[in-house]
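The pair is quoted verbatim below.
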Amino acid sequence: MKKNYFENISEELKSVSVNEMYEIIIEFGEDIKFPKELMTEENRVKGCVNRAYISCSVKNGRVYYNGYSESKVVKGYIAILINGLNGMKMDEAIESKKDIEDFLKRTKIQNSLTPSRANAFGNIYEMMIKKAIDLKNQNPELSS
């Protein structure tokens, strides 16, 4: 599990002001590249005010995500989640909920967000896990 990634990010975010937190989150999303052909309804994150997309694939038994949003802040959330979950074994990614909840508690990120942005983080994470579960169900041999 890439626990240290979420712990390191939470240390950075909880030590700054709300405005600085937004700046850091936006910076995370700056390098995201997402092919237009993956901007499909199947990959669209439901419940997000801004269009957001998540794709998921498996290579060598490990899960890899890609994502995009029109919103710079939401794109940053996607980048944080992608960086934290990419390369995990399928079951580790599916069972990462406690680490994400701990991350949210430590950073208090949801307290500083508008309700729609707070919901976006949760909706993105839920979709990432749903996509991993769907891939696992289609390919039971991917379980660790």
User: Anything to note?
Assistant: The chain has one domain: 3-139. The longest strand covers residues 52-59. The beta strands are 52-59, 62-69. The first helix runs from residue 3 to 14.
